[in-house]
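Form 7-S
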Amino acid sequence: MARTDLDALALDALTLEQKAALLSGRDFWTTKPLEQAGIPSIALCDGPHGVRREAGGSDHLGINDSMPATCFPPAVAVGSSWDPEVAARIGAAVGREGRALGVAVVLGPGVNIKRSPLCGRNFEYYSEDPLLSGVLGAAHVAALQAEGPGASVKHFAANNQETERMRVSADVDERTLREIYFPAFERVVTEARPATVMCSYNRVNGVYASQNRWLLTDVLRREWGFTGVVVSDWGAVQDRVAALAAGLDLEMPGTGGAGDRRVVEAVRAGELDEAVVDASVRRVAALTARHSGVSGAFDADAHHALARELAAECAVLLKNEGGALPLTAGARIAVIGEFAVRPRFQGGGSSHINATRVDAALDAIRVHAPDAVYAQGFSLDGTGDDRELREAAAETAAAADVAVVFAGLSEREESEGFDRETIDLPAVQVELIRAVAAAARRTVVVLSNGGVVSLEGWHDDVDAVLEGWLLGQAGGSAVADLLFGVVNPSGRLAESIPFRLQDTPSYLNFPGEAGHVRYGEGVMVGYRYHETAERPVRYPFGHGLSYTTFATSGLTVVRTGDYTATVTVTVTNTGKRAGKHVVQVYVATTAGPVRRPARELRAFAKVALAPGESRAVTLPLGRRAFAYYDVPLGRWVVAPGDYTIQIGENASSVVAETTIGLDGDPAVPVVSLDSTLGEWLSHPHAGPALLKVLTTGRSERPAEHDADGLRMASSMPMGRFLTFAGIDLPRETLRELVRLGGPAA
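Output:
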C-alpha cells in the first residue's frame, strides 16, 4: 500500500539522497518510487481538454503519438459557454479517461488571462475576465478530482505570452496582479483544492516564478492556504535550490539526478535547511496516494456524444441578418472551405490529443441536407491555384440558396511556443469570403480559430457569422446541429473582438523588449479598457445571439450586509424556441482613490427557458464584488460611495441598473514622512493637527493665501516639504504628528 503521510519516524529513516530524489521526475512523465517507504511512482500527463498519455517517445510539444483519448472542447470554447456545468462535465470525463489510462495527475486547466489576442496559447485559456476564468476552472478541477486523478492548475503566474516565455520578465504592479492575474488561481485553489499548482516559465518582476517565494509561499500557501504540491512547468527550474527554498516541491521532468545532487550539496553546506526538503517530501508522498494504476475503462462512443453535446454550448452566433440561420434542410446548400473536410478542432503543442475519432462538418451537414455540394475554396497546405479554387467556389455558391464558408486558422498560424503577429485571417480566405458573398444569395461564415480573428474586410458582406473557436473532435457535428437549429446557439464571447489590433489595451507593450514585458495597461484588460476608454469593438465581451429572444425585467438589489448584496432579475424567453440566456451582472463605481474600470463582471448565470417561460434569477455579490486591492494597506478595501449594479446584455450594453450606497471600510490611511503633504492634510487625525501647527502664528496672512500655498506643495513628501519651507518642528511635535498618522491612531 502506498504511504500517504510520512511521519517523523519514517522520514528519519530516509537518507538525504533518498529524500532529494523524490523531488524530481524519474523520466519525462513519472516520479521516482521509493519502495521501502511505500512511495510508488505516479504518472503525470498533459491535458486539460483530454488525456495526452504518451505511448512511445516522450515530448512536451505534442509531436509524438499518444494513446487515443477523447478531445473535448478546449478552454477557448468552454469559456464562451459561460457555463460551469460544461466545464465540470468535461473535467469529470477527462478524470474518467485519466483513471482508465493510469494517470495520477492531469496537467490543467490553464486559467491565465487573455491579455492580448496575439498570445499563441490563448486556445488553452478561458477568458479575458478573472471571474469567468476562475468559476470555470474551479468547476473543471472539482469534477476531475472527484473521479480520482489530480489536477494541476497552471501557469502560475503572469504567463500571458509565448514570446521569450522561458525567460521574459512580466513586470506587473501588485494591484494588477491581485485584481486581474491572481483571482482565477485563487478561486480554484480555495474552492476546488487542486492536487498541484504548476509554476510558469517566466519571471515575475524579475524573479523566476519557479523560485519566487512571494508567489509560491507567501501568496499561494500562506494567504490562500494551498497544501498540495507545487510542480514546475517542464523545464522551468532555473536554480533547483532556490526553487525548493521558495516553495517548489517537484521538478519535472527528471534531470538525470543533477538537481537532486545540488539539493544534497546545499543542505550539507548549510545553504538549505533540511526541514524545507522534508516538507516537500511529505507533500510529494501525499500526492502519490492519487491512483496511478489502470482502473476501469471509458466508453469512447458515449464520450464522443458528450463532446458533441458540450461543443454546441460553446459556439457563439455573432451575426444573423435576416434570419439567415438556422438553415432549412430543403435549401440548396453550398459548403465551401477546406476546414469543412479537414477540421481544425484543437490547438497545437502539449495539449494536442490523439482523438478517438473526428467529425467533419461536411459529413454532418449532409446528414441534414444530403444534396449539399462542396468546393474546396482554398488550400491549407499551399497546393493548388488560389484563383482557380476561389472562382470555382464562387460558381458553386452562385447556384445555391445559401453558401456556408468554413474559415479560420491552421496550427501554422497559432500554437504553443510562439505568438501570432496579426489577428487577420489569411488573405486567401478573406478573398474567398468576399468572392462567395458577392456571388451567393446568402452567405454564412463558420470560424475555427483558437484566438480572436479580425472580421474586418468581409464582415459586412456576409449574412451570418458563427464563431466556432476550436470545438473538439465532435465539433463538426456540433456545428451542423447549430446551423440547422437542432441546438439553439447559446455561447457568449469570453473575450472582446476588436476592430483593429491597435485598439487592444496591450498593443504598445506586447510582447515586450530587452527581456521585459511591461503590463502598462494595469487593470484595464480586455473589456475593462474598451468600456473605460470608450474604444469601440466589433463585438464586445459577453455578446452572443440566439434563435429566440429574451427580455429582462424586475431588477432588485438587496443589501445583505455592510459589503454584500443579492441581485434578482427576471428573464423571459419572448421567442418561439427554447433557448439559454446568460445573465451578466456588472458593478460600476468611481469610489476610492484608484482608477476603477467603467464596469466589471461580478456574477453570472446561464439559464434555460422554454418559449414564453419566465424565471427569477438571484445571484449573490460578495465583498470582493465591490472591493479594490489597496497596495499600501496590503489588503482588499471597499471604499465608501455609490455602486451601480448593472445587468448587461454584454459588457457594452446595459439593459437595467440600480445604485446602492456603501459606507465602506473604516480604515484610516497610514502616513509617514515619505507621504505627501496632501496625504497628510487629508488624514482624519493627523491632518487637522498638522494644519493647526502650520497656520499657528500666521494670522497676519490671508487664509486663502495659506490654502493656495499648501495646495501648490501638496505633492511634496512631508519631510521634504518641512525642509523646503524652512519649518523646524520640535521633535516632540513631529513625534506626535507621526503617531497620529500611524496605524494605531
